[in-house]
Amino acid sequence: MKSPAIRIPAGKVTPIPRKPKPQDVHIEVLGRTLKVHTLEYGDTLTRAKEVLESGFHDMEEAYEVTWGSSPSALDSTTWLLMGALNLAHRVAQLEQEATRTTQDLEHTLSKLLDDVPDESYDSHPQPSAPPGAQDGLFGSEP
Fold first, then answer.
1. Angle CA(66)–CA(69)–CA(75) in degrees, nearest 5?
2. HSE-up of 71 (CA within 13 Å, CB side)?
3. Helix%, strand%, coil% for the chain, nearest 5
4. CA-CA distance, 73 to 24, in Å (whole number)?
5. Burial of 97 (0-12, 13-18, 19+ CB in 10 A)
6. Residue 116, Cβ density class (10 Å: 0-12 exposed, 13-18 middle, ≥19 buried)
7. How far apart are the first and last CA of the chain?
8. Is the dihedral of CA 38, 42, 44, 50 positive or negative?
């Protein structure tokens, strides 16, 4: 037996949505304007800028407390690398914390599942087939 052909009525084809195109965004970071080519602009990029600037501000304060002067004596490459290292360290700590939290949740879930009693299928017997009924969907095999 031949399968019927599938026909799509004219005018009923749904177009595939197009992915948004990256756009150029100008953002000021640490007193410098940067042009960023991005798909996402808004809260995430703004929050990233705030975290970066806050991190460098905290570094400046710590430097002044420790050394009694501003960090202007350091070259900009060293200062930027120190800032990048601080942020990378923060990311690594957050990843460790997330992994630890996930493991704790998995352990708790496992303990909860272990405490759930196994139900016996015999406690809820299934109705049996009437006498003379065929085995399976297509009857019993020879």
1. 100
2. 20
3. 50, 10, 40
4. 34
5. exposed
6. exposed
7. 26
8. positive
pTM for the model: 0.55
DSSP 3-22: PPPP-PPTT-PPPPPPPPPP
| pLDDT tens digits, 54-111 | 999 999 899 889 888 888 767 788 888 999 999 999 999 999 999 999 999 999 999 9
Largest CA distance in the chain: 97
Phi and psi at residue 77, to the nearest 5°: -65, -45
